[in-house]
Design goal:
The protein is built from 5 helices and 4 strands. The protein is α/β, with parallel strands linked by helices and 136 residues long. This is UspA domain-containing protein.
């Protein structure tokens, strides 16, 4: 499937939107806006480590003939579906994306109705084409 969306020389951006509260648990440091002081060097080191992890996982899933160095964006956001979807749409516009390719968690129709779906929000509000890849 990736062959339909990627051609040599394309710029690939990986966007990871995490809630402000899970930021501390995910990266192992408190969220900057919740702490009066922070060791900036330690914080940057943890963020670089997280970015490297994201790139490694992404590249491991690509066919071997695709050679790219993705640009990683880790963005803290509020926790609801609409705000995460809004962040994705705004970032796509900011980086002038030609399309947004994203996964879906397959929550099921009832759970999706009550909790919402980020992929559904993005597909309805993004100004560029959106491709949603369903989990097998």
């Amino acid at each position: 499937m990736i062959n339909n969306f990627y051609k040599e020389g394309d710029e690939v951006h990986l966007l990871n939107v995490i809630s402000r509260l899970s930021f501390a648990a995910t990266l192992g440091v408190p969220a900057v806006d919740f702490t009066p002081q922070i060791n900036r060097e330690a914080y940057e080191a943890v963020v670089r480590k997280a970015e490297a992890f994201i790139v490694k996982r992404f590249l491991a899933r690509l066919p071997s003939h695709i050679q790219t160095t993705p640009i990683v964006h880790i963005i803290k956001s509020e926790v609801d579906t609409n705000s995460v979807g809004h962040v994705i749409c705004m970032k796509a516009e900011e980086i002038k994306a030609t399309c947004v390719l994203m996964g879906s968690h397959n929550k099921g129709p009832v759970r999706e109705f009550f909790m919402g779906s980020v992929s559904q929000y993005v597909s309805h509000h993004c100004k560029v084409p959106v491709v949603i890849v369903k989990q097998p």
